[in-house]
Amino acid sequence: MAKSQALESNMDVDYVLTYRFAKTDKATAAAKFERLVEALASVGLDTEVRNGDNHSVLLFVRVASDEHLFGEVYRSRVNDWIHGVRAAAPQKETRESLEAEPLYEAERLRIIYQLITHPKSEGGAGITPKEGEWEEVEAVFALHDHDYNKDWIKKWTSQYILKTEDLDEIRNRLGEKVAFYFAFTQSYFTFLIFPAAFGLSSWLLLGHFSPIYGFVSAIWCTVFTEWWKHQEVELGVRWGVRGVSKMETKRRDFKHEKEITDPITGEKVLMFPSTKRLQRQLLQVPFAIGAAVMLGALIATCFGIEVFISEVYNGPFKSILVFLPTGIATVFMPILTSIFTDFATRLTKYENYETHGAYETALTQKIFVMNTITSYLPIFLTAFVYVPFGTVIVPYLDVFSLTVKPFAEDEKQMQTSHAGFSINPGRLRKQVIYFTVTAQIVNLGMELIVPYLKRQGFAKYKEMQSERAAKNGGAPASPTTSDPPEDAAFLQRVRKEAELGVYDVTTDLREMVLQFGYLSLFSVVWPLTAVSFIINDWLELRADAIKICVEMQRPIPWRADTIGPWLDSLSFLTWLGSLTTSALVYMFSNDGLGPSGHPKNLTGWALLLTVLLSEHIFFLARWGIRVGISKLASPGLEKERRERYLVRKQYFEENLSQMQRIPKMADKGVEISRESLEEDARRSSLKTSSPEERFWERQRGWRETVQVGRSLIERAEGGNSTEGKKDL
Amino acid sequence: MAKSQALESNMDVDYVLTYRFAKTDKATAAAKFERLVEALASVGLDTEVRNGDNHSVLLFVRVASDEHLFGEVYRSRVNDWIHGVRAAAPQKETRESLEAEPLYEAERLRIIYQLITHPKSEGGAGITPKEGEWEEVEAVFALHDHDYNKDWIKKWTSQYILKTEDLDEIRNRLGEKVAFYFAFTQSYFTFLIFPAAFGLSSWLLLGHFSPIYGFVSAIWCTVFTEWWKHQEVELGVRWGVRGVSKMETKRRDFKHEKEITDPITGEKVLMFPSTKRLQRQLLQVPFAIGAAVMLGALIATCFGIEVFISEVYNGPFKSILVFLPTGIATVFMPILTSIFTDFATRLTKYENYETHGAYETALTQKIFVMNTITSYLPIFLTAFVYVPFGTVIVPYLDVFSLTVKPFAEDEKQMQTSHAGFSINPGRLRKQVIYFTVTAQIVNLGMELIVPYLKRQGFAKYKEMQSERAAKNGGAPASPTTSDPPEDAAFLQRVRKEAELGVYDVTTDLREMVLQFGYLSLFSVVWPLTAVSFIINDWLELRADAIKICVEMQRPIPWRADTIGPWLDSLSFLTWLGSLTTSALVYMFSNDGLGPSGHPKNLTGWALLLTVLLSEHIFFLARWGIRVGISKLASPGLEKERRERYLVRKQYFEENLSQMQRIPKMADKGVEISRESLEEDARRSSLKTSSPEERFWERQRGWRETVQVGRSLIERAEGGNSTEGKKDL
């Protein structure tokens, strides 16, 4: 079998499980392996085992028969319908239902993944990779579709703008969650065109800190945020996933305190008192303060050292020493961040949420707080501490003279010059440019190059290891020797994919949201920000596609109907932007020197007033934009409404057809004639009946009512009301 | 039949229609009457006609048979289910369904009312009182249940606090819309206990304009508003009406511009372009400005005259003349208000809303704007114009000297004294007391006494009229002479009820919301406000009950799941309260004389800053309160959730039971034995099969996978990986 073919065919494999038994003794490993295979077989999966890398085997899995799969698909669709994701119940004949609405690849893979991982009580095999009983199952992953990947990358790199169909294709292959990320980035990219153009002209014509640019930029950020909310709904309907985020999956780690038997449903409900959770959530306050203080201290220290070296220090190696704080930050920031991320994860676990959704939201919020501090604090320090208070603070930066002591030639080089210190007005702009250009490029590079180098190094290392083993006379440790020759190429490919990382879409989303933050918060400092971002994001979209195809295992195609808690972050950043932009405009309106030519003339109350008024304008504008966007035609919602209407109508008709309809009124009216008068006589003899009966018996049938009514109407005028009294 | 009995029995009458033909010629009136009776009979209603007051007849209506009614009830319940108001579809056997969930009186009356008024296409008789074809149908009303009314009033007047069961009783009798008003007023009343107690102690200990009182009061207002939102949901679930407000009823007056055939549903949809509506809605801006200017001018004029007379004028009749502006306001305010209300109604009609809900909301908003101006502007003028700018403005009030010229003895009496004018710090408090005590009492009196006097006067007038007619020798015009003696008392009662007004719950709701506004906006001026309100509201709740029972026709029992747009007004007033309270505290913190002992020292920016900061504290507090209240246990939502769960579960089980389940895996595994080796040989001959087939055929069944896996695991360590290669 030629290598090119091996790349093309996935051998009908749906999923590969890596079973690693390095830390388990062989007997247990073998017994557990048996349980694993049995569990998979019990839910209708075919299995094949092959040798893996050292101390691991690869377990290949596919659905045994189409009937099994169709059953699961039907189950999943019925479940969707019950949770309101679908308007109508799927047809009862599975095959017909599938013909009406064919299975797409992501759906298929998701359903099989759920079959493997769902607990037994929900009809799955209950395999939980890396957890509990299944610690040895290192990974469950699908194989890349190399043909499609090649096409995808080729198409994207030769195309400027992505169409909705391109996003549909991603959704069909990689699932809605990943597709939502690409849709968001694509929308953001398209929206960036305007601020890039406006920013460029404003940079040329209006200069920095232009209030006009600030206002337009704030409005644009709001429009984008609100429009994306609208777009999320549209995409959700288009992809048939609206409401999916409300289908809550229980967390396995949830620890209950009480078990209550629900009096109505009779089910056992696991409870965790919400007051207790609230108490635990209160720990977020010290956590946030701690993170803010520690990260803030690190950033402030680096900032202080940097200011000291660049503005005060006057000795040798200045041009090199200036990178010292960056070095400190590069070393310590990741350490601190990972400590706090770990802490945040523990804290969120301790908060003991019942559902995955709640857990994710709580974790994202904590991480967002940390990211906000690390991303924006440096610029905040420059804008709101260094500039207004620089002349006061800088002389105290002598404490950082320690850092340069070994290099300084005399004490004078480390003291503020007697002529007095004056702040460097270009610092803020330089910093913004650093964060919006340099840092973005570095980031993009890191994302693509570092994993590549890592993989190359790892391959090299393994090669060397096996060479050494060969030299030492041992049999080569490589598992490839035991491969059947015809599968060798395929298995080699699978082993490589098994070594790849797991793609986490939230990291990429976070990156985009943080980038949006720079635009919203600080672009008034340097209006070209959006120009830099638009170039960066064009590359980013493609780089992410390549990353998914080459650097990562094929992602599990989860569903989503939103970008989740990041949407709140977006709103938050837009709001914060209305504050910072107005503050910056006020403070630097005379190109960095305050409204009256000198930053000293800033008054606190005027700044506060500017900020608060601008915030109110923002609230007003946001309300207007929301109203405007809600009036936009929404074909998605229209479609949903119509579908639901049709379903309702059908139910209604089905139900009412079985109901007895009101029979057409019996024509009970009788002409007033001799007979009816006789009847009157008979009636008056029936005095034994109740007053109610007598009241209603005076006029039999509607025709009599009409006749009596007519006579009443005719006699109304003229006072001849004594006539005809009897026939009432 | 004794009179007491006549009061008790409603003769099984469900509704009474007043058919007045004074303005129609007799032939047309008779023909229309026939059509009316026929239409009613065609939907299964029994009819009886009796003479009414001059130029009218009373048409009594009841459901002909229980089967008719049950059919309609079932229809209505299925419709509820389809719109998501009910979790489960009602049972198909109507009788069973009714036994499981008995009909309550309000439901019965509502369904019959809908039977009378719904268009023919929806299965009703299409009677539209006072409109179009049915102009002669003056009113459709149900008869009071005098027994229940007597009990109700007796119970309420002897009870301090109303229980939820009392509200349930109202809901069962008068429908959810009226019940929601009583529930709201009752909740508000209960919540008032705290600010009344706190206000009293703060009045004794802290004095006026206490920042502590202001803060607590603002928090309380927010808690109440947010808590009521929570309570609405609870009551909605309790009364089974949650989601009812989303069931939109089309407006008959809606004029479409286009008729589009929906491509999916195939239904004809009447369209009115929303851009055109938006253009028409823009007329609200001149309307609001016009109303504000005109009403504001009237109020400002009265205010100016009042200030002039009380503070400048020094001549005779001062004590009487001081009431002149009140007189002007009393005469012109109702005229202006009714003109603008009429205008608002026309404007809302012109805006051409498709549904009743949208129409009501738009109208309520306009009326709320007007009410806000008339209710709060006088106090605003005092607080924010008179006090800070009084010394500047008052000398110019000479223009109002015209009003007192006839009474003044010399010019001096109408000029500001030379010693200079000083503002009257007690004016603001007096005004607040006037609006929160005097005006409330007057209002309550007007509600009860004026209609009583009106009825008495009308009865007297009719008596006189018939006396005069008798004197003139004509036959008495009274219709009672044609009554059958046994029904006479009953008919007399019905004629009286026909003359009563129609109860409009929104008027009462508006009154409460406006009262809440005084508390939220100005209670910091006079902390006893809540004490006055608590007394007033205890009476108000009872007075409203009496009003409904005695002064008004029995209300049509509409459903509702909210107090509607007034909820937004409540939120608005709470927000505005956070601004006014802080402004008042800042301006009058030294008991009416500004922070530095003199109102002149007020600075605009400090005031603005106070207000804006306090607003932010309010936003923060509101967010906290919302989070807190959302954590409250919600038995209603719990119940709803459970019900929906049960329904889902049932559907799920019904659907999946029909699905073919995955058969337990066939035990395809074969022991590795001689036979299997032979099989291997056979297999290798099958080289014609595809690589995929060959890949999956290496291990037949899960047992073989396990065996191969075991051997792979065992051979992993030690490098003896060359063994057993063949059986892979």
From TrEMBL, chains A, B:
GO cellular component entries: cortical endoplasmic reticulum; membrane
InterPro entries registered for this protein in UniProt: Anoctamin, Anoctamin_N_fung, Anoctamin_TM
Domain Anoctamin alpha-beta plait span(s) in chain numbering: 12-137
Region described as Disordered: 677-696
Domain Anoctamin transmembrane: 170-643
Compartments where located: Membrane
GO MF assignments: chloride channel activity
Lineage top rank: taxon: Eukaryota
Membrane-spanning segments: 178-206, 212-228, 285-308, 320-340, 376-397, 432-453, 516-535, 602-625
Keywords tagged on the record: Membrane, Transmembrane, Transmembrane helix
Membrane topology (UniProt): Multi-pass membrane protein
UniProt keyword Transmembrane present: yes
Protein's recorded name: DUF590-domain-containing protein
Organism this protein belongs to: Amniculicola lignicola CBS 123094
